[in-house]
Amino acid sequence: MADIRLANVRKTFGKTVATCDVSLTIHDREFMVLLGPSGCGKTTLLRGIAGLEQIDAGRIHIGGQDVTDLPPRKRRIAMVFQSYAVFPHLTVYENVAFGLRMQRRPDAEVKRRVQSAAELLQIANLLDRYPAQVSGGQRQRVAVARAIAVQAEVLLMDEPLSNLDALLRLEMRAELKRLLKELNSTVVYVTHDQVEALSLGDRIAVMKDGAILQCDTPLNVYDYPANDFIGGFIGNPPMNFLNGQVATNGAGFMVNIGGTIFRPPLAIQPALREGDGVRMGIRAENIAALPQHAEGVLAGEVMVVEPLGSHNLLTVRVGGERVKVNTHADAAFQPGQAIWLKLAPDKIRWMAHASGQAIA
Questions:
Q1: Judging by DSSP bridges, how do beta strands 311-318 and 321-328 pair with one another?
Q2: Measured between alpha carbons, how far is 292 from 184 in angstroms, rounded to an integer?
Q3: What is the mean pLDDT of the chain?
Q4: Exposed/middle/buried for 53, CB within 10 Å: 0-12, 13-18, 19+?
Q5: Cα angle vertex 17, ends 14, 23, to 5°?
Q6: What's this model's pTM, rounded to 2 decimal places?
Q7: Do 148 and 117 touch, CB atoms closer than 8 A?
Q8: pLDDT over 80 (residue 263)
Q9: pLDDT (mean) for 300-317
Q10: Higher model confidence: residue 345 or residue 141?
Q11: pLDDT per position as a tens digit, 202-225
Q12: Per-residue pLDDT at 1 exceeds 70
């Protein structure tokens, strides 16, 4: 078993709180992604799990053992760093073998494990070369091979793809997902790239200001963000938000947005009060763009048309706010044109205006 339990983990640097009483359980063989903007505390939390940062408060358990005060070498973990951290004076073979040498493994075992890891990462033909003789993507594969060769119960990865170009990152992302499914290791993966998080993780823990705001499956984090920060951080383009105010009539609660009446679902109405400010969230792909008026639509004006090959991305002015809308590539909208937006009712998410929290 290689589950990880964090209990009220706190780390400060001077007056800066890097992680604020973080509690999280990562299941055995789970792929957990720590996602958030720069400075949110995700790397600090990862380094705390690894033992590279001594936490100020809280406890860390790996596989049922309290490792809070143990040095990194006794935590049964392996780590892949953002900067690759390969040794330029060692061959690829010796780089991959480094952790095994530190464990004083027999030469035959070292050779077997290095060869196995190299074949998994498709670098077996590079073992005699030096890091300067291989590409950046291949160096990243060397770093991953070194981590998996030691067969640690927990694999920690700190933005391992961020230094690669876009096409290579796409290729390596698919390779990593395939590889880590084969290894059946417990993986904690840090990234600021929400596409990586959505495509790789079994669960995503979204962080901001040293705290975890939501931890759930990629689909739930995308479809049901816990607050407007998460909705605006995850997704390309991010979730649209339109401001309104709750009112009542004989039929119950309603919200007037841009002259169109929307009725929040019955499930959230007990949490609403007349006069409350609310934010309506909707994804670009859940909006239909119409060239003429229809019932229950928002009126707007096209500001920008961005052709993206498979589809067009429109920026539409609705009242004093801007809305991103996906349309078919052959949709004939032009800047300055009037447009009407039909929102999928079951895809609308409602947030409290003051707190930004989802209304449930």
A1: antiparallel
A2: 53
A3: 92
A4: middle
A5: 140
A6: 0.89
A7: yes
A8: yes
A9: 95
A10: 345
A11: 999 999 999 999 999 999 999 999
A12: no
CB 93 within 8 A of CB 115: no
Q: Containing H/E element for 19?
A: strand 16-26
Structure tokens at 143: 């770093």
CA dist 292 → 145, 260, 289, 301, 333 (Å): 57, 15, 9, 12, 12
Backbone angles phi, psi at 340, to 5 degrees: -125, 135
Q: What is the 3-state composition of the chain as percent helix, strand, coil, each rounded to the nearest 5? A: 30, 35, 35
User: How high is the pLDDT of residue 283?
Assistant: 97
CA-to-CA distance for 69 and 360, rounded, in angstroms? 40
- Is residue 29 within 8 Å of 186, Cβ to Cβ? yes
Tokens 């070498």 belong to 73
Angle formed at CA 180 by CA 179 and CA 183, multiple of 5 degrees = 90
Residue 85: pLDDT band (50, 70, 90) is: confident
> What whole-number distance in Å separates Cα of residue 143 and Cα of residue 26?
24
DSSP bridge partners of 248: 253
Residue with the two structure tokens 């499914």: 181
Tell me the domains of the chain and their CATH numbers.
4-233 (3.40.50.300), 240-352 (2.40.50.140)
**Using CA atoms, how far apart are residues 155 and 169, in angstroms rounded to an integer?**
19
Give CA–CA dist 229/357, Å, rounded. Answer: 9
